Amino acid sequence: MEWTREARYRGLASISNDIFEAMKDQVNQSPWRQHYHIQPVTGLLNDPNGFIYFKGKYHLFYQWFPLGPVHGLKYWYHVESEDLIHFENKGPVIYPDTTYDSHGAYSGSSIQIDHHLYVFYTGNHRTKAWERIPNQMVAKLNDDIEVVAKQPIIEGVPQGYTEHFRDPKVWQEDEHYYFVIGAQTTEQTGRALIYQGDTSLNFHLLGEIDTGLSEFGYMWECPDLFKLDDKDVLIFCPQGIEPDGIHFQNIYQSGYIIGDFSLETLEMKHDGFMELDHGFDFYAPQTTLSKEGERVLIGWMGLPDINYPTDQYDWAHCLTLPRVLNIKDDTLIQKVHPDVEKLRVCSYEAICEVNQDSTMIDLIHPERSEVDISIVENEADELSVVFSNQSDEAVKISYEKYTGALMLDRSQSGTLPSNQDNQTRTVKLNQPLQSLRIFIDTSSMEIFINEGTHVMTTRLFPKAPYEHCMFSASGNVKIKTKQYELKRG
Ligand code: FRU
C-alpha cells in the first residue's frame, strides 16, 4: 500500500474493531516477532514515553502509529507490569483527539502529583497549509490509566525557536515542577530548554541549558535531565551530527553529557558528549526511578528514516531491555536490570579452550537466550565470537587486543534494514575485554561489554535463528560461557 499523507493521518476510528483484531493476528504470525521485548501490537512503535512506577506498577507507553509500519498519526500505547520485564499490553491511552494534538500525541513523560498520574507530552498540530504547531500538553489520568482531562500548558513556540519544539521530560524539585524540552533555534541549531512551573502547573521558560555545545546538530530530541551518583546527567538525541571515525555512525545520535548543572545559571559543566549505545539500532531513550530507587533506562530499538525488514509484515520496531544506570570514572555504566533474570528457565555452563582452532558451542535456545561469556585468559591478539545459522548467515563480534577495538559486523546476518551502507560498528574499549553478556531474541541482540561499560544493540533479521556460537582466536584463550534459556516474557 502506498503511504500517502492522507493514509498516514488516518486514525484508529477509521477501522472497525474486527479489522483491528485481524491486523493483530496477522502481525502475530509474521516472522521476526520478538519473545520478550515490548513490540507493537500492530503498526509502528517508536519512543518509550511516560515511564513511571506508580501505585505498585510500572507504566510505560510507546509512540504508536496503529495502521502500518510508517510514521503517521501517533498515539500513546500503554503497557504495564509489576516488574520491569513482564509487561502486559493495555491499549491506547493518549489519543490525538483535540485541535492541540490533532496530528499526533508526540513524546513526553509522567509525574505523580498528589496521588494522581499526570502526563506531559507534545501535541502536534498541523494547519491546513501543513504548518506544524507544537503544543505542550498535560493530561490527568485516573488509577485505571485513562485520561480524565487534558489541556495545553504552552501553546506554540517561544521566540527564537522553530516548530521543532517537543518531548517534555518533567520532574519535581524544591516546591517547583520543571521540564526539559528539545528545541531548534531559528539558526537551525539544537538546544534543550528548561521550563519552571508552580503548583497550579503554570509554566514559564527559564532558558536554554548552557552546555557550550552551540553547534552540535540541528535539533535535539527527547532530552532527559536527572541526578545520578552526585552528578547531573543530560541525555539527548542530536540530529545532524556528521560521522567521525568510529563515532556517530547512525543516522541520528543518542548520548549524554555528565557534570554539574545549576538551575540558577542553567549552566551544565561537562567533559563532552558520549554515545549511549555503539550498535545499529538505538534512539530516544527515557529514564525513570525504579521501585528500588535505581535510575532505569529503556530505549527505542530502532531509528527514524530507515525501512526495516518487518515493514513487509505491517509492523516495525521494539523497545530495549531495561538498563540500570550508574556512573563510574565519569562515564555511564549500563547493566541489564536484575528483573530480566526472572526470565531464566534453565542454564548450561561450559569452559572452552581456544587456540589456533575454533571451538563451537550450540546455543541453549536459538531464539531466546542469554549468553554470558567471560574471558578468563587471553594471550591472543585477535579473538572473535560468531553466531551462525544453517543458512550460513552470521553475526560477528571481533576484538583486537592491541587496539582495544571491538567490532560488531552484521553484514552477513540476514536481511538488512535500508539506508545504511556500513554494516559494522566499532567501539574502543578502555579496558581489555573481560566479559560479554548477550541477550538474543528472535530479531535482536543486546551486547553488554565489560559489565555494562559499553553496550551495542542491534536488530537482526535472519532466515532461521542462529544456533551456534563459534570462538576463534589467534593464540591461546580460555573462555567460560554460561547460557540461559529465557521465557517468553
Ligand atoms: C523521536 C521523535 C520525537 C517525537 C516523536 C514522534 O523519535 O521524533 O521527537 O516526539 O518521535 O513520534
End-to-end gap: 33 Å
Q: Can you tell me the overall shape?
A: globular
Bound molecules: beta-D-fructofuranose
Please indicate the percent range of residues in DSSP E strands (runs of 2 or more): over 45%
As laid out across the biggest beta sheet, the strand order is 23-34-25-30-31-32
The whole-number mean of residue pLDDT values reads 97
Helix content: under 10%
Describe the structure.
3% of the residues lie in helices and 52% in strands. It has helices spanning 5-8, 17-28; strands at 43-54, 57-65, 75-81, 88-94, 105-113, 116-126, 132-141, 147-155, 161-173, 176-185, 190-197, 203-208, 219-228, 231-239, 255-261, 268-270, 274-275, 283-289, 295-300, 315-316, 323-328, 331-336, 344-354, 359-362, 369-378, 382-388, 394-400, 405-409, 424-428, 435-441, 444-449, 454-459, 468-473, 477-486. The strands form seven sheets. The protein has a six-stranded antiparallel beta sheet with strand order 23-34-25-30-31-32, with no helix packed on it. The protein has a six-stranded antiparallel beta sheet with strand order 24-33-26-27-28-29, with no helix packed on it. A five-stranded mixed beta sheet has the order 4-3-2-1-20, with no helix packed on it. Strand 1 and strand 2 form a beta hairpin. The longest helix has 12 residues, at 17-28. The protein starts with a helix and ends with a strand. It binds beta-D-fructofuranose. Residues 46-47, 63, 74, 106-107, 122, 166-167, 221-222, 283-284, 304 line the site of beta-D-fructofuranose.
